[in-house]
């Protein structure tokens, strides 16, 4: 077998080899650490992962790209499994209010927050949305991210804007090296027009929007913001079950701010993942563990909301809930594309170990997107999505926080960032 790319002399190789499923409990301790590691790639797939030299059945020639990763750390390409990538405008105007202690939900109820991004997203044309999202995607890639989930949700009752967001995500998926997994999140706020009768809007989502999204094949997942003043547990259940009937798997913004029973709902209807969970109850956490629902935790949002409350990641892991970690990149509650910073927050604030952190942004992130068979770990047959960090070990990346440690990023076997 001829290798098209070889990464050799790897100081610290983190393979995450093992079962292709979300990891919990004991399985979090073994991240497949190899010293003096070597990886061989043929076209877009990994053909060898080991230590020292390549075995005899793998050959190299003048065309093989050889990377010497002495003193570097190599991991699977990072996965940001929860973002609101495509949107117009920004919300730095909320900073002064936030500093005065006005809460996220109060800003939303006063017509700001998501409503203000709705307006900017509606006013932006396809090309403007595309180039803004592309810039963010370039930044994400520069931080070692090779797969990103992107939610709609800034058109809401303006369905054309919802479609525009998902079409931008689709085009970026086709044209940008980073893979984009699309989620329909029309249920992101209750439009002013339906405040008196939110169920009418729920019916519109179910009867008019979901079938079109499914028909146009614009989203693999459906997500709902289940929160006080937004969608209730019953409304969220109705929307997600209808989406599932149409082939979209369910995700849920659950218990982000108030403990509404979102975690319980996610378990009841077998969501692939529940997001945020800052205020999740003990019962909710236990039921998620029983059902294997992945907790997608977003510590950057807690940091930025300034409430001092973070999801109880340790309790979740102790109960056996698989934990993924993401940025939640959006213009309101978490305006950052920097997944390495989120890794530091997860460790330094939520007290996750480096092993738990790297698992959260690789194999568990992959599982939150249903992609654990093809990405999220470095093993033979998987996609050659690889991040090389200019850091001697994993701890260093987490400890030396707030800067970019990326040296090289490989996507589908090609160097796409250097
Ligand atoms: O995940 N909570 C709902 N959605 C986003 C924030 C969206 C926004 O504020 O624009 C979140 O926090
Ligand atoms: Fe979110």
UniProtKB/TrEMBL annotation:
4-imidazolone-5-propanoate binds at residues 91, 154, 188, 256, 333. CDD domains: Imidazolone-5PH. Its cofactor is Zn(2+); Fe(3+). Zn(2+) binds at residues 82, 84, 253, 328. Its EC number is 3.5.2.7. It catalyses: 4-imidazolone-5-propanoate + H2O = N-formimidoyl-L-glutamate. The keyword Membrane does not apply. GO terms for molecular function: imidazolonepropionase activity; iron ion binding; zinc ion binding. One of its GO terms (biological process) is L-histidine catabolic process to glutamate and formamide. Catalyzes the hydrolytic cleavage of the carbon-nitrogen bond in imidazolone-5-propanoate to yield N-formimidoyl-L-glutamate. It is the third step in the universal histidine degradation pathway. This is Imidazolonepropionase.
């Amino acid at each position: 077998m001829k290798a098209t790319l070889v990464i050799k002399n790897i100081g610290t190789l983190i393979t995450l080899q093992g079962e292709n499923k979300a990891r919990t409990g004991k399985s979090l301790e073994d991240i497949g650490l190899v010293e003096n590691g070597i990886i061989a790639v043929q076209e877009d797939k990994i053909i060898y992962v080991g230590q020292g030299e390549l075995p005899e059945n793998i050959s190299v020639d003048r065309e093989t790209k050889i990377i010497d990763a002495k003193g570097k750390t190599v991991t699977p390409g990072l996965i940001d499994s929860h973002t609101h990538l495509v949107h117009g405008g920004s919300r730095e105007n909320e900073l002064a209010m936030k500093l005065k202690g006005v809460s996220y939900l109060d800003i939303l109820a006063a017509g700001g927050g998501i409503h203000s991004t709705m307006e900017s997203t509606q006013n932006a044309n396809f090309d403007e949305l595309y180039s803004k999202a592309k810039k963010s995607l370039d930044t994400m890639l520069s931080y070692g991210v090779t797969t990103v989930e992107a939610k709609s949700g800034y058109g809401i009752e303006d369905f054309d804007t919802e479609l525009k967001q998902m079409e931008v995500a689709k085009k970026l998926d086709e044209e940008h090296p980073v893979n984009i997994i699309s989620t329909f999140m029309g249920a992101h706020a209750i439009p002013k027009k339906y405040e008196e009768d939110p169920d009418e809007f729920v019916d519109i989502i179910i009867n008019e929007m979901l079938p079109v999204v499914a028909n146009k094949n614009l989203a693999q997942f459906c997500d709902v913001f289940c929160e006080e003043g937004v969608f209730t547990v019953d409304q969220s259940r109705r929307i997600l079950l209808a989406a599932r009937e149409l082939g979209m798997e369910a995700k849920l913004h659950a218990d982000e701010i108030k403990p509404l029973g979102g975690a319980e709902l996610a378990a009841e209807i077998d969501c692939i993942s529940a997001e945020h969970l800052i205020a999740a109850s003990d019962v909710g956490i236990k039921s998620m563990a029983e059902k294997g629902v992945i907790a997608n935790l977003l510590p950057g949002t807690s940091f930025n909301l300034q409430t001092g409350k973070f999801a109880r990641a340790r309790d979740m892991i102790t109960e056996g809930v698989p934990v993924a970690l993401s940025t939640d990149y959006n213009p309101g509650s978490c305006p950052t594309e920097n997944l390495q910073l989120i890794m530091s927050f997860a460790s330094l604030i939520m007290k996750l170990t480096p092993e738990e952190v790297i698992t959260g942004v690789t194999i568990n992130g992959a599982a939150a997107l249903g992609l654990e068979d093809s990405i999220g770990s470095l093993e033979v047959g998987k996609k050659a999505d690889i991040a090389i960090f200019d850091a001697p070990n994993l701890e260093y990346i987490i400890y030396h926080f707030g800067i970019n440690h990326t040296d090289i990023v490989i996507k589908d076997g090609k160097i796409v960032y250097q």
